[in-house]
Amino acid sequence: MAEPANPAAGPVLRFSKMHGAGNDFVVLDLRGGIAAPSPEKCRALGDRHRGVGCDQILTVEDPREPGSVASYGIWNADGSPAGQCGNGARCIAAWLVRDGAAPATGAFNLDSPNGTHVVDRHDDGGVRVVMGVPEFEPERIPLRGFDAVREAYVLPVRGSIISVGAVSMGNPHALIEVDDVGTVTVELMGQGLQQHAAFPQSVNVGFAQVVARDHIRLRVYERGVGETLACGSGACAAVAILGRRGRVDREVRVSLPGGDLCIAWPADDAPMTMTGPATFVFEGEWMA
Ligand SMILES: N[C@@H](CCC[C@H](N)C(=O)O)C(=O)O
């Protein structure tokens, strides 16, 4: 039977579809004070069958801080808001350069929900983002049940006792070190940790395999999404946790299912940087 006409169709919503190493986005231009989409609208846009489909919806908004080019909002495909999105920051930077609002060469400032990032676009189209200093204190993550910072926290998850690293990159991350990311039960353990009482705001869960001191493989089960092809803040979190354990060097290539990101952490109290691609896919109109 033919589907009935879309009775809920309202005004057309223009968007850009982008991705960063396979982590895909619907980008909406809300500059000029246009209201942010409701959680329901984000879910509808993010639906891979009935909407456009994406991991996150990103909104370009007017700057909050003096000297910034713009600010941006982040919503996961399930409609929940997020404080940080590394791959998204690169895509927003490339979007603003294409728009003419940001300079094509040199660094500029972008306001994310959790602070201002310095970004700069390279000639090869790659973008570098200053991601901030990782925060390990349990209350900053937030991680319940532990007072002091540890290299690993031991937690019961889905019938197993596992050792988990945890950090905030402006959003919460947990990390499990594994021998082979190809054989990990990502969904089972990812959901187990996301629903664990130790993470009251849920958590993005990474599974890392150290290949060499300057190279890791990583899969991430994201909060509000599920397994993603890449997670920029997750790549930083993995390098921060493994770096603190002395397992990796200060510059690490992180190979995710959707591509590679380069993460640098010059010193423990210095901000991390992330470099990677930002790709335009198509422009569209959504029957909101
Ligand atoms: N894909 C992102 C992270 C998006 C937000 C995350 N799911 C959360 O809820 O914290 C990245 O590239 O960092």
UniProtKB/TrEMBL annotation:
Keywords from the named record: Amino-acid biosynthesis, Cytoplasm, Isomerase, Lysine biosynthesis
Active-site positions on this chain: 85, 231
EC category: isomerase
Leader peptide range in chain numbering: none
InterPro entries (UniProt xref): DAP_epimerase_AS (IPR018510), DAP_epimerase_DapF (IPR001653)
Subcellular location: Cytoplasm
GO MF annotation, one: diaminopimelate epimerase activity
A biological process term (GO) from this entry: lysine biosynthetic process via diaminopimelate
EC number in record: 5.1.1.7
Pathway field: Amino-acid biosynthesis; L-lysine biosynthesis via DAP pathway; DL-2,6-diaminopimelate from LL-2,6-diaminopimelate: step 1/1
GO CC annotation: cytosol
Swiss-Prot/TrEMBL catalytic activity: (2S,6S)-2,6-diaminopimelate = meso-2,6-diaminopimelate
Annotated positions for site Could be important to modulate the pK values of the two catalytic cysteine residues: 173, 222
Residues reported to bind substrate: 23, 56, 76, 86-87, 171, 204, 222-223, 232-233
Site (Important for dimerization): 282
Homology family: Belongs to the diaminopimelate epimerase family.
NCBIfam families from the UniProt entry: DapF
Role according to the record: Catalyzes the stereoinversion of LL-2,6-diaminopimelate (L,L-DAP) to meso-diaminopimelate (meso-DAP), a precursor of L-lysine and an essential component of the bacterial peptidoglycan.
Name of this chain's protein: Diaminopimelate epimerase
Lineage: Bacteria, Pseudomonadati, Pseudomonadota, Gammaproteobacteria, Lysobacterales
Gene: dapF
